[in-house]
Hints:
By secondary structure, the protein is mainly beta. Helices cover 0% and strands 41% of the residues. The protein is built from no helices and 4 strands. It has strands spanning 23-30, 37-43, 50-55, 60-67. A 4-stranded antiparallel beta sheet has the order 2-1-4-3, with no helix packed on it. A hairpin with a 4-residue loop joins strand 3 and strand 4. It is elongated and about 75 Å long. The relative contact order is 0.27.
Amino acid sequence: TTDTPFNAGNVGCCKMARARARTIIVRLVSAAGTGFFYTVKRPRLAPKMTLRKYDPVVKKHVLFKEGKRS
């Protein structure tokens, strides 16, 4: 037997809660229904994002709305 207590070498024995990120990654889905999307960052506390960007499937600028990132 050894005289050292169990877990003596492990300094970080206790789990600490991690801080939540200030920015999140969201998916902007085309409102044209083509399935094309952009992935962008936005601040966590900002309202949901909508942008007018280029959709190469329909070859036009269309509205992109924030959807789920899966």
